[in-house]
Amino acid sequence: MPQKSEQLLVCRPLIWALLASQVLAGCSLFETRPKKDVTYRHERFAPDSPYEMSFEVAPAKVCDAGRRALLSQGYVIDEHKTESVRATKFFQPERTTQVQITFSLSCLKEGEEGAQVFANAREARSELKSSSSSAGVSVAGVGSVNLPLGASGETLVKVGEETIADADFYGRFFALLQTYVR
Fold first, then answer.
1. Residues of the chain with pLDDT > 90: what percent?
2. 156 band by pLDDT with thresholds 50, 70 and 90
3. Crossing angle (nearest 10°) for helices 167-181 and 59-72
4. Who's near 91: CB < 8 A, 6+ residues apart?
5. Do 146 and 98 touch, CB atoms closer than 8 A?
6. 127/130 Cα distance (integer angstroms)
7. Of 51, 60, 64, 137, which residue is the least packed, with the fewest Cβ within 10 Å?
8. Helix extents (H) in 33-85
9. What is the mean pLDDT of residues 71-76?
10. Which whole number is the average pLDDT over 157-173?
11. Would you place residue 160 in the very low, low, confident or very high pLDDT band (cuts 50, 70, 90)?
12. In 3-state terms, what secondary structure has residue 11?
């Protein structure tokens, strides 16, 4: 009958082989996963940006004109500084969907008396989600029972947010802004 030390010597290589195979199997999982498509790889840093426009007036005047343009379209001004404006507008395209546009303007000095305006709008989409309530009773040794209460609630849940990248959207805004600059 083999002694314990002999059994241990026989089992040790087997244990190492099992451990090595587990490590290699784990490593192969990392290599076979598909690479995630990262959004920033599609980012274009191009000089023909729809987000900017130059004006022949001071930055404070352009930002004030931008504030007036946004107010004329139903936006609520969240923040107004000399050289920046942030405004918000809400939409409800369907009963269960709410859309919020947050519009930001930055007015920077350009040359002696000009300004360069950068506009950026973000669209956040929220949807109404239903949830129901239940109550549970647990008795030791017997088990537990969950009963629906019949009450349900609806909660507005954000399902997405992105920067609006439509050049026509910014073109319409800048055209309106020009009418307020004059």
1. 55
2. confident
3. 110
4. 98, 99, 100, 101
5. no
6. 10
7. 137
8. 59-72
9. 98
10. 95
11. very high
12. helix
* Closest listed residue to residue 67, CA positions, set 52, 88, 47, 46: 88
How many whole angstroms from its chain centre is CA 58? Answer: 33
At 14, which amino acid appears? L
The letter for the amino acid at 22 is Q
Locate tokens 């809400």: which residue? Answer: 90
Q: Which contacts qualify for 101-104: CB closer than 8 Å, 24 or more apart? A: 101/75, 101/164, 102/78, 103/70, 103/75, 103/173
Cβ atoms 53, 174 nearer than 8 A: yes
Token pair 């989600």 is found at 129
Both structure tokens of 105: 């303007």
Q: How far apart are CA 137 and CA 94, in angstroms?
A: 39
pTM to 2 decimal places: 0.67
